[in-house]
Design brief:
Structural class: alpha+beta
Strand order of the largest sheet: 1-2-3-4-5-14-6-13-12-11-10-7
CATH topology of the largest domain: Aminopeptidase
Mean pLDDT: 95
Distance between the termini: 27 Å
Radius of gyration: 20 Å
Helix content: 25-40%
Order of helices and strands: EHHEEEHEHEEHEEHEEEHEHE
Number of helices: 8
CATH class of the largest domain: Alpha Beta
Amino acid sequence: MVIVREARPSDRRQVAEFTAHTWRWGDYIMSTWEDWISDKRGKLLVAEEDSKVVGIMRLALRPEGEAYLAGARVHPMSRRKGVATALTKKCIEYARLMGAKFVSLATSSRNIAAISLAEKLGFTLAQELTQVGSWPKKSAEPKEIRKMEAEEAEKVLKWINRRINCRPVKFKFFEWSTLRLDDLRKYSEEGFAAVFGETNGVVLYQPYSTRHLFIMIDFFLGEEKASKELGLFLRKEASVLGCKEVWGYVKFDKEIISGLRKAGFRVRKEGMRIYEMKL
């Protein structure tokens, strides 16, 4: 029988053991454990089977009634036993009790099991993202690109909302959240926001370091010409900041993809799907 409960500090060792080989390079769960278990606004849940921890999932609460499910992991020997279903249902239950208006999650486009579970539980596909990447290019000469000023954040957000027909989302360390006005101001103040022309394209990004330093694309939007120039700008920035590469997820859009390809980006088959459910 699967029992779902709130995580305890003593669960960390068992979680570390079954998440050690999630990907070839490991997993990020141990890097976020302390933040997740101490987050008083959200919940970190584990699933037990025969008194052994076999699953984990995080519920994060955000402004304006947004809830997000992250870090879903199940022990390889306990898959197809309803562990992920039990964790997801309990997270949704907590989200309702805590006043959330909707809940979302993101999963790889190749994760058929996660996609099937989300759709079975009533989540609907909100948007698809494609993974793109490139290398630094010191000689890149982007045109009509300028750093975004914090004072124009409101205008840029209005342009974004007119340009897309879904909730704008930004990336931050393997999680997605609604892009808000404060986010645009923060990226601008830190110097990691750029626009094309008056406001015909925008990119938010930041340096990350795991195995090496790289630029992560947190949000990207623009027509083909804007996407090309913003792509060249990112490659130039990677060179300036001493990064080994630049990569991230962008909205699955023909013009964005075409523009980035012209800027020397490769487009991978694997992407992400973002699902949502109203509560």
